Amino acid sequence: MRTIGKLAEDGGVGVETVRFYQRKGLLGTPTRDGGIRRYGNEDVRQLRFIRKAQKAGFTLEEIKELIDLDAGQDHHRVHELAAIRIEKLDVQITELHRARETLRRLTKECAEGASGPCPILATFEV
User: Fold this and answer.
1) Is the pLDDT of residue 72 over 80?
2) Can you name the residues that pair with 36 across neighbouring β-strands?
3) pLDDT for 32-57, tens place per residue?
4) What distance in Å separates the CA atoms of residue 25 and residue 50, rounded to the nearest whole number?
5) Buried b (16+ CB within 10 A) or exposed e, 61-88
6) Which fold has domain 1-56?
7) 3-state SS string over 67-80?
8) pLDDT score, position 126
9) What pLDDT shows up at residue 111?
10) Is residue 13 within 8 Å of 20, Cβ to Cβ?
């Protein structure tokens, strides 16, 4: 059994992150044992699950649903959530590619132009 500090350390997050996840209903809050809350291996597993799902781009709401599905066998819904996430990532990747190409073009224009307004800054003006 571990304290919240040890749980946070084992999960690679801060204590406030653990508390945040608890407030959002992603992690349980154990009862106090001698005045101290004690966390087990399942809590570490759950915390790591949340972090990995976040790194995959899932929202906290989606992670909550994945946690609920983790207890069951609803492969179809998990697959559906993953497919939706992939579609969103594809859109983000396309947008990032466009942004990179625009910035490359503007950087080249900036390097070639010695006078006048900076093309990069001019692009960002409204």
Assistant:
1) no
2) 33
3) 888 889 999 999 999 999 999 999 99
4) 11
5) ebbbbbbeeeeeeeeeeeeebeeebeee
6) Multidrug-efflux Transporter Regulator; Chain: A; Domain 2 (1.10.1660)
7) HHHHCCCCHHHHHH
8) 59
9) 84
10) no
